[in-house]
Request: fold
Amino acid sequence: MTTRRQLLQSAAAPMIVPSLVLGQRAGAVAPSDKIVFGGIGIGSRGSHDLSKILNITDAKFVAICDVRNERRETIKSTVDQKYGNRDCKMYDDQYELLARQDIDAVLIATGDRWHTPLSIIAAQHGKDVYCEKPCSMSIEESWALGAAFRRYNRLYQAGCQRRNGANFALCKELLKSGALGKLQALYANVGPSVNWPPLPSRDWLAAEELPPKQVLDWDRWLGPAPWRPYHSSYVRGGWRNFYDFHGGGILEWGSHTVDLCHWAAEYDDTQPVEYEPVGTNVGPYQVNCRYANGVKLVMRDNAWDGALKTGSCSFRIEGDLGWVETGDATRIECSANIKPLLRPTEPASLALENHMKELVRCIKTRQTPSASAAAAANSHVTCHAAFIAYQLARPARAVENLSPGGEPPCSNQPPLPPHHRPPSRSRPRPCLHPSFVKAASPPWMPRPCSAS
Reply:
């Protein structure tokens, strides 16, 4: 059975097969054609994404794959009602959906543990991808994601829809125009530490009776994660509180706000070189980062600033001439000299719609979407590295930068446990500078790279 490591390594090997075998249409998609979507793992968040696809005249949704029978039937009913037919097909095996030659792109909205493996598998089958965030569970997965979409020449749009939000775009415009002066610092809000604990639990819930396989395929639900006994809370969204399934608050929120910082500063091809946690790893969290050019990135939760005036997922840009900040409330706060430059912006609800429409346009033109796999790889590496520094409560520094065409700086990581092996360790160990991690670290901690 293929392990997660084997899958990630396969992304580095070229695969030359006819396009029709991969499930691609012969030739480019004609501008007049509808882009045909399938979906894998569509729950509450995925349903929002699906609603935007269903409202795009140039797109059509034809198939749903889910390990839960109830979700398959619910999504099929929604799609069939929208189109006035019964054509939406249901699958419990992702490979059957991906084998369809009429499907151009897939919406991946599973739990986080499946995001990178499914995205790579979809690319190998010739599909373009819209994947919810967080896009990866480790530094290694981030590298593999970027590498796979380069090698298979597929398009990828991360679910970072705020890149298509008007208030966020205005902040980026103010920086690019020079109104803020020379960039000094970026601030990324990484959420409430109370509702989204920075360190997910490593304790597990007591086993419950497993539903029949036709109701829930528990093995497929676990997927790349180590095997655990079933508990209904995991399936209802409680998986976010547990380490094998979720990367913690820094990744959950930083995959949005660090992404915004990189996008606004045009840092999509880089990450910080230093990470320094502030305080302890048991309470409100803050990690101060520095890029090679000296610009600061401050990742912090709500507790440092109290109530946010600009809403959740806020980010702030500081230059030597002024500053600007915005979030999901669409309100923009700024220094006095910037206020005359502000203008009304559209509702935040339009960001996701615009984001999905951008992918559809890019599939037709083969242009790279704004939230590409390469951009996601760099922002997620930043979040993972900050999370590691926070866990260890000590500074970290990068071995080397990840460029859009770069590869992991070393490949001496130990193999992952086989699929569904009882857990000894739950995710790949990121490659860190030898001075960062002590040999006495617990077994789930990352190991240092040996010189090569």
Residues 410 and 451 are 8 Å apart (CA to CA). DSSP finds twelve helices and 14 strands in the chain. Confidence is low (pLDDT under 50) at residues 14-27, 402-452.
